[in-house]
């Protein structure tokens, strides 16, 4: 059959502009991620503040850890709903809804006086908004690019220090609303690309060994990512370093991700969209095992945070492009929906497990009790690398 006789959908999925307005969409999605996942990444600094200042008297560490777990699980739990609504509602509607939910949650958190209110605002409302924004935009770049698909916390601490944590929340809420709305209005899907109808992803695909390995990579990668992300600032305090050092370490971890995620994508386009994420996870695991336990000074901790950040968020950076290597493009949303649901469990319990693994705070032999956490995170990243490495490159 000649190209002129092929179905329209087949022709469209084979033709990619490789640029043009697609770059506007990439920048817009970047800004949305920065003002959802980026703010969420600063929760480690906020968590350290809650614990050290006893902001909500009588609240245990595990309650705070559960709030951080909701940051991932709520966002992923609504993935099937958002995927189902995508063909019904314009992406722009879901993005605007998410922007208002994120802003309302941050401003609402500034008025909380009890921990259950924190659960509702910072725990549930924020993550529902983040889920609407993330799920509805994660696959946008796939429609505009084929050859370049992969490319697609100090501030919060200073605001807490200068304005108090309540006004810090309000400022973040206003800024995130403004940026997310503007970026959301600029994002659009590639014209004419067939929209996902919510189906087309059968059980046969789910049972394939390659797809199970894909899910395993995500499971262990997210378990390790969340544990490290929300433990780094409190780890610094357990070492006897001040809260400013912990916040800078968390900020550098996020800075490393800001460079690492596009770097992983760019290298994936050049050397392989499965091979490069596997190597990134493996290197991050090795850093956690052989560098983090010895990073007891501010300089060493900063160096570890920056280097680990280059590969820490590989799951988020590479999920869509790896899925596109395993299934046909119209089935990618369904594949990602299954992945998000699998990631709900590790996203919910990772920080709770990390706090449980933490030994007695005064034990010098385990450098403030965090050695088991570091071993756990490192082993998780190596398991993720092994799972992805089992896929055909």
From TrEMBL:
Record InterPro entries: MFS, MFS_dom, MFS_trans_sf, Proton-linked_MCT
Main localization, broad class: membrane
Entry annotated with the keyword Membrane: yes
Taxonomy, superkingdom: Eukaryota
Localization, UniProt: Membrane
Transmembrane segments: 20-49, 61-82, 94-112, 124-145, 165-187, 211-233, 276-295, 301-324, 336-357, 369-391
Gene3D superfamilies, sorted: MFS general substrate transporter like domains
Membrane topology annotation: Multi-pass membrane protein
PANTHER family associated with the record: MONOCARBOXYLATE TRANSPORTER, TRANSPORTER MCH2-RELATED
Family of the protein in this entry: Belongs to the major facilitator superfamily. Monocarboxylate porter (TC 2.A.1.13) family.
Record-given protein name: Major facilitator superfamily (MFS) profile domain-containing protein
Organism for this UniProt entry: Penicillium bovifimosum
